[in-house]
Amino acid sequence: MPELPEVEVVRRGLADHVSGRTIAAVTLTGERVARRHVPGPRDLEDRLSGRTVTGAHRRGKYLWLALAGGPDAVPDEGLIVHLGMSGQMLVTDPADPVAKHTHGRVRFTDEGSELRFVDQRTFGGFALADLVDGVPESVAHIGRDPFDPEYDHAAAVLDIKRRRSGIKRVLLNQTVVSGIGNIYADEALWRAGIHGERLASTLTKPAIGRLLDHARDVMAEALAQGGTSFDALYVNVNGASGYFDRSLSAYGQEGRPCPRCGATMRREQFMNRSSTSCPRCQVRPRGLPR
């Protein structure tokens, strides 16, 4: 699933290509693309027509387009874009052939490039939401991410220090610090030399602070390389893949030598996914089964 760097790459592309443009018509194919919009796809098509996109925004891994105008001049609404596992927001020439898994097309009054939503696995989709202080109500509970101007590093450290869960579970808790998923949690933990099952409350505040710094640094590096792409399903709005997967030190590196000490990287079950770590650099907490 796309994490902060991948979503931010898409957000920047949308900001460049659709901000300030007025929607002429929307075509949604199938029911799943609008399943989070209770009145259904036809209602969503009608309510988007005539709206002007005033900006593309993100909090953590959540992305939305702010909208203005429309037939009823509905104020302060946003179109939440759920990318799911394989959703793609592509800016294309209207004359281009329509890809097989295209579930949404957004045309604009200027008759320039159009926006297409392509989703092979159909986990993603669109939903309208009221904006409160510029943020969708359904996203308001999500914590600030390390790139947010209002992110409070010290408060995040204290929050994490109070939690008696494994530190990786805490990193993935989007209400604490948002934007970090499985990929960048593994990378940050490897850089910090911390095993993901270590209880957050047993870490010192300086250690937590350094871990959050590592998370921010690795996501910044990934962002500079267009994000992490393991297959053709994650791309930016122009269809290009990111290439940070070439720079990963931990995630997906099981069986390979640790870049720091040379020990063989291990893969362990974690929730419904997995974690990759170094058995020498990231010592497993006592009592955990091997």
List the helices and strands and how they pair.
Layout (H helix, E strand, L loop, with lengths): L3 H15 L4 E6 L12 H8 L2 E9 L2 E8 L7 E6 L4 E6 L9 E7 L5 E6 L5 E8 L2 E2 L16 H9 L5 H6 L9 H11 L12 H20 L41 E5 L2 E5 L13
Antiparallel strand pairs: 1-6, 2-3, 3-4, 4-8, 5-7, 6-7, 8-9, 10-11
Task: Supply the key terms.
Helicase, Ruva Protein, domain 3, N-terminal domain of MutM-like DNA repair proteins, four-stranded antiparallel beta sheet, five-stranded antiparallel beta sheet, alpha+beta, elongated, 290 residues, 2 domains, 6 helices
CATH architecture assignment name of the largest domain: Alpha-Beta Barrel
Please name the fourth-level CATH homologous superfamily of the largest domain.
Answer: MutM-like, N-terminal
pLDDT below 50 for ≥5 consecutive residues: which ranges?
Answer: none
Report the biggest beta sheet as strand number plus sense, adding barrel if it closes: 5 strands, antiparallel
Q: Count the helices. How many?
A: 6
Bin the strand percentage: 15-25%
CATH class call of the largest domain: Alpha Beta
Total number of β-strand segments?
11
Q: Summarize the amount of helix as a percent range.
A: 10-25%
Structural class: alpha+beta
Give average pLDDT, whole number: 92
What separation lies between the terminal Cα atoms? Answer: 28 Å
Number of domains: 2
Basic shape: elongated
The helix-strand sequence is HEHEEEEEEEEHHHHEE
